[in-house]
């Protein structure tokens, strides 16, 4: 695949949040305000980019058996670095993100892309993939946050919108509303980009633990595929 | 195979080492910046409530400082004190409201800054942090006249007000400050009747006439606290529902019960008589619902040794078998009880609160001992 399509695929066709359904926790948690969502998106993209590049660079050095612990150490290292730098230089953003900054470590997008892509491709390709996925993450976060903040709280980036702030729907800023919006967005994206999504890449065959998994459904599928 | 294992361990170990070293380096650079910023934020917060302060010094918390007051800062220039208070609102003790209360040298609030209100419900409880509400506190002293709870956010706002009062308690503990008499009364009025607190009493509004300054009545009827002027001094008297003086103190907390004059006791009784008669009339009405029609009640005077839980006592005539009737206050539950000549409990009913459960309370025993007491005094 061309370098450009590698980058672009992360934005709609293989959007990590709306198509691959990875990283839903921070999505639901930080999208009650646009400022938080963008902050989270940028932080996660930074970590994703760095970790993809590092893991890709070390892909021939890290033995298969310890790859998950190694990836996690690297990812956790980058997240901690981002955390410290944020705490020192942008404390207001640090305070709003709170615990979700630390939770980027277990954000499935990062570990998932490391497994699915970075461990098998070159540094530049992995970087582009990471960047594309990160942008896709930001786009998804922004769309959700836009709907939830503008219609749920009647503000945009904290600035009140004259008409909407009187007729707001507060449930949108709470958990239940978050799930509503999330489900609707997934439905819209999957409708707008049908057939272009290669489901095979991320069903059992694409799952990082496929080789180790003994669960009946996956094992049966594998046996069928092998047979 | 072993080679593989060694490689695994070596690679993982090396990665951990490198990452750790990198993080140590970044921490070395950022830690001082973070610490400096935390200190400046703290200073800014305290400066927000004491804007004329020149510099702050930390004051040690003494034993009298309430637990909710976690930090005390004194302005070196003498303009006042700032107290960091963790108030228990809707979020309870696990998610307290954190606020900084500034009190100037005259004991009046300069400003309150709320730094953490995340434990309260958004749009409801967090109104305690609203500019308009906080403005009602400015300039108030410890009596907090004119400060109200927020309707619809009672738990949050009454927790907040309680926290501000704690700040005043801390102020009294660490600052050399002369309270006005009104403030002392406000603080000491609950100490004259056992079990009285500011939550289970209410003030009798029309009682402040003549030498009487303030009267507080315990909700369960166990007594009255009367603050009145005795010549030059101001004293606080605790009166039982039978008009007996339970305790007398002055505004420095000294116990004057032994030296109470007759005039003082009757002045205090006069202050509560209107309310007391209304209460007793209500008692008679409640008791007669336990008796047959046509029964009448005659009030009994107080006898020494009467259990403090008996707040009203009558003899009954015109009802077969019934001889005595009492109103008891046990565990803050008011109970009407009717007994026969021998002191056996004939009937009882819970008067308040509506959901009060009297089944575990010693109603029969209290009634029996009360009847025996009245019988022995009248020589029967």
Commentary on this structure:
The complex is a heterodimer of chains A (227) and B (380). The two termini of chain A are 29 Å apart. In chain A, strands 1-2 form a two-stranded antiparallel sheet. With 227 residues, chain A is mostly helical. The radius of gyration of chain A is 19 Å and the shape is globular. Chain A is built from ten helices and two strands, in the order H-H-H-H-H-H-H-H-E-E-H-H. Chain A is 62% helix and 2% strand. In chain B, 33% of the residues lie in helices and 28% in strands. Chain B starts with a helix and ends with a helix. The chains are: A mainly alpha (227), B alpha+beta (380). At the A-B interface, helix 4 of A face helix 1 of B.
Strand arrangement across the biggest beta sheet of chain B: 1-2-3-4-5
Number of helices of chain A: 10
Largest interface: A-B, 21 and 19 residues
Instruction: Tell me the fraction of residues in β-strands of chain A, as a range.
Output: under 5%
- List the quaternary state of the chains: heterodimer
Question: What structural class should be given to the helix and strand makeup of chain B?
Answer: alpha+beta
Topology pattern of chain A, helix = H, strand = E: HHHHHHHHEEHH
Strand order within the widest beta sheet of chain A: 1-2
- Compute the gyration radius of chain B: what is it? 30 Å
Shape of chain A: globular
Helix content of chain A: 55-70%
Number of strands of chain B: 15
Q: Tell me the fraction of residues in β-strands of chain B, as a range.
A: 25-35%
How many beta strands in the DSSP annotation of chain A? 2
Distance between the termini of chain B: 104 Å
Q: Give the overall pLDDT of chain B as a whole number.
A: 83
In the predicted model, the low-confidence regions of chain A spanning at least 5 consecutive residues are none
| Poorly predicted runs of chain B | none
Could you give a short account of the major beta sheet of chain B? Answer: 5 strands, antiparallel
Overall structural class of chain A, as computed from helix and strand content, comes to mainly alpha
Helix content of chain B: 25-40%
